[in-house]
Amino acid sequence: xxxxxxxxxxxxxxxxxxxxxxxxxxxxxxxxxxxxxxxxxxxxxxxxxxxxxxxxxxxxxxxxxxxxxxxxxxxxxxxx
Length: 80
What we know:
Layout: E1 7-11, E2 29-33, E3 48-51, E4 62-67, E5 73-79
Antiparallel strand pairs: 1-2, 2-5, 3-4, 4-5
Region (Disordered): 11-41
InterPro entries: DUF2283
Protein name: DUF2283 domain-containing protein
């Protein structure tokens, strides 16, 4: 069931939480959960992910769009 909220989470690279993190290679990540997203950490809710650069030619951050089994856009991930 959808949570009905829009939520933005931004994660910085953190050596204390992830000892394998490489600050030179790992960049901040933002994830926008849209109203149809079921909930954080819901296993299997993402059935398809599309990379924006596979759809249009642009320069900038990597952007990935997550879709559920019904084809609804449920989240957007931005890698800086």
